[in-house]
């Protein structure tokens, strides 16, 4: 059987219809937790990069309603919202964000189709998305205006609905090589208030505990004291100035803001915060330390060939550590940069940060937490406000 447009649309709408106002867990006898469809879902929870947060399998014959609506909120410009397929993944649909814009990708009878458009959605506000079927077209409407339309007319005739439909939220169930447009999958975003269909079957998840969606948010990266983001520093030898900048309320932070280490060695440089101390921020380089009490929200560190300097808001240096360590010159070339924790000799993290970093920049460019190569246990693009 082919996947006609009514079948596809039912898949899109069903996944939205299972989203509601509270997630309650139970067992299903298969080692997975069952989550009520009446839930507010946080999509950015740690897991394998492309693995869905929740998923469900339903009989197509049980579906009677083909209209759907839900709300999405995010500052993240990229990531998977939901996925649906038939024929064990031969025909599939993915809704995601691409540079903040809605993107739909479809595979039908081996033909790939992608469309991106509509308004940007990563402004941190709740947006209402509505999906509907209009003949041979699937129409996505955001906040009642600017529809995004996808149309396809298969050669074979429409057939009665039969078989099963697999649905997934926050991930996909096919090989990523099948996608027409590649993107970073995990999204720091929330979905709520799905009003769809007549089915009340529970979703399944492998997660023991579901992360919360904060009531109000602001741009930044929130570290709840459970993990860190690790990057290959790859900044080259320090023959020119390398600049690392942080924005945030340092008096409200606790733990390691960042550290830099080379493989198999202890960190050579790290920056920590202690909100219980009068002098709240400490920079350590080797055996040397600088203690500061930032009066503002910006802290700038410059790595020169012979010194590490710290600036607070103004361009004038507020403190400096002369450098003679022989390992300093290639620290950025072969080392790892961790944000939100202290990397040890065994490359595991400790002293995790609790607090919000509103912005992080290297050489004047924003650092995207989604580019970290580890599972982070942080909110990559939002902080509780």
TrEMBL record:
Residues 40-213 form the Laminin G domain. It comes from the Eukaryota. Keywords: Disulfide bond, Glycoprotein, Lipid-binding, Repeat, Secreted, Signal, Steroid-binding. GO terms for cellular component: extracellular region. SUPFAM superfamilies: Concanavalin A-like lectins/glucanases (SSF49899). CDD domains: LamG (cd00110). Coiled coil: none annotated. Residues 1-25 form the signal peptide. GO terms for molecular function: steroid binding. PANTHER family: LAMININ G-LIKE DOMAIN-CONTAINING PROTEIN, SEX HORMONE-BINDING GLOBULIN. Functions as an androgen transport protein, but may also be involved in receptor mediated processes. Each dimer binds one molecule of steroid. Specific for 5-alpha-dihydrotestosterone, testosterone, and 17-beta-estradiol. Regulates the plasma metabolic clearance rate of steroid hormones by controlling their plasma concentration. Homodimer. This is Sex hormone-binding globulin.
């Amino acid at each position: 059987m082919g996947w006609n447009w009514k079948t596809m649309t039912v898949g899109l709408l069903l996944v939205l219809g299972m989203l509601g106002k509270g997630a309650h867990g139970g067992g299903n006898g298969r080692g997975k937790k069952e989550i009520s469809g009446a839930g507010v879902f946080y999509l950015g929870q740690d897991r394998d990069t492309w693995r869905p947060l929740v998923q469900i399998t339903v009989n197509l014959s049980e579906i009677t309603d083909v209209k759907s609506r839900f709300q999405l909120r995010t500052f993240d410009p990229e990531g998977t919202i939901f996925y649906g397929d038939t024929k064990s993944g031969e025909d599939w649909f993915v809704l995601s964000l691409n540079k903040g814009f809605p993107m739909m990708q479809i595979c039908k009878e081996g033909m790939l189709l992608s469309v991106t458009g509509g308004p940007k959605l990563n402004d941190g506000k709740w947006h209402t998305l509505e999906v509907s079927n209009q003949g041979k077209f699937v129409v996505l409407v955001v906040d009642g205006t600017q529809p995004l339309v996808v149309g396809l007319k298969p050669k074979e005739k429409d057939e009665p609905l039969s078989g099963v439909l697999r649905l997934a939220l926050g991930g996909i169930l096919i090989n990523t090589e099948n996608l027409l447009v590649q993107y970073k999958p995990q999204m720091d975003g929330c979905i709520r208030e799905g009003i769809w269909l007549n089915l009340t079957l529970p979703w399944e998840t492998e997660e023991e505990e579901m992360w919360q969606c904060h009531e109000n948010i602001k741009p930044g990266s929130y570290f709840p004291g459970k993990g860190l983001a690790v990057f290959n520093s790859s900044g080259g030898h320090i023959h020119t100035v390398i600049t690392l900048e942080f924005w945030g309320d340092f008096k409200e932070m606790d733990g390691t803001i960042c550290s830099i280490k080379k493989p198999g060695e202890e960190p050579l440089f790290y920056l920590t915060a202690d909100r219980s101390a009068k002098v709240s921020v400490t920079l350590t380089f080797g055996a040397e330390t600088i203690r500061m009490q930032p009066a503002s929200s910006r802290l700038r560190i410059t790595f020169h060939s012979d010194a590490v300097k710290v600036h607070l808001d103004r361009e004038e240096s507020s403190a400096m550590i002369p450098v003679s360590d022989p390992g300093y010159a290639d620290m950025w070339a072969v080392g790892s940069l961790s944000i939100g924790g202290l990397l040890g000799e065994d490359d595991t993290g400790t002293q995790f940060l609790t607090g919000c970093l509103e912005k992080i920049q290297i050489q004047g460019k924003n650092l995207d937490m989604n580019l970290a190569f580890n599972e982070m246990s942080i909110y990559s693009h939002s902080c509780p406000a």
